[in-house]
Amino acid sequence: MGVHLAITGSIATDHLMTFPGKFVDSLVPDQLDKISLSFLVDDLDVRRGGCGANIAFALAQLGHRALLVGAVGRDFETEYRGWLDAAGVDTSGILVSESRHTARFVCTTDTEMAQIATFYAGAMSESRDIDLTALGTDFDLVLIGPDDPDGMLRHTRACRENGIPFAADPSQQLAWAEGDVIRDLIDGATYLFSNDYEAALIQQKTGWSADDVRAHVGTQIVTRGKDGVTILPADGGAPIEVGANEGIVAVDPTGVGDSFRAGFLAGVAAGLDHERSAQIGCTIAASVVETKGTQEYVLDRENFLKRLGAAYGEAARADVDAALTLA
Ligand SMILES: Nc1ncnc2c1ncn2[C@@H]1O[C@H](COP(=O)(O)OP(=O)(O)OP(=O)(O)O)[C@@H](O)[C@H]1O
Ligand SMILES: [Mg+2]
Prior knowledge:
Strand order of the largest sheet: 5-4-1-8-9-10-11-12-13
Bound molecules: adenosine-5'-triphosphate, magnesium ion
Structural class: alpha/beta
């Protein structure tokens, strides 16, 4: 593989439970200061996730072996590492914490879709202890995804100081970050990824106009859910619009943005242009949105290419067929 990608970001598991009742029936409004509740649930789904892991997994599905960089707990060794290794992810860049568990999202949903959730960052906070340059300086591109904030800043600066091209993908971490942190995370990025809501949030928090943002980054990619994606080229040229796959039954949107990024980067790494790369992104995203979980879909070459051809035409199918080595 000529092109060397590193994906930095969260590695986590989701523990999802469903409560066959209504939370509100258990709440006693004038006793909330003594709250102590336990819900008997009848379903537990444990899913592998985390943005960094989702992106690296999706790249592997598309035939690209990327280096995953993040921090986990020792529990990662029992099952998750083997899963990623078997999928074709390079897990040699992962830091294993001595004392903390892998990040975990625990969420219980009731019959009304009300949710009570907890996120434990755990070992993820140790990603700030990772020296990216110790893992290599020959990366063609490093994606800096949602992670421990200090880790994200450290990796971004390491790229900038060493002249390593990077893709800024702060997504959900935009919610807490102040404007100066966001400016630091995106300034000089070769690619900036976000959805349309986050693109507006970036402007609001940095105080930069849309043009200012474009002036600080190379290519800006804005995803719009079922309305597809807009690519703003680095040369200031006209936006490129790519539609999403149509007629997709959305079952679980979790991880859809991650898979889009992987598809786009797999295309870029294979030498395809931005339009083709986005078409790959939208097509793998369709498989993720119609599957429960973020690493539970299966891509087979024939169906993937058929789907891409149906959405974007025969020329697109042929280009991707020639460029990608997906199994
Ligand atoms: N309902 C859908 N049908 C078809 N494609 C979809 C649908 N939703 C999302 N996609 C594809 O996934 C891409 C990314 O979706 P979206 O903009 O919702 O990301 P996101 O908001 O970052 O999602 P998340 O953070 O939940 O992963 C879209 O550009 C589109 O190609
Ligand atoms: Mg997202």
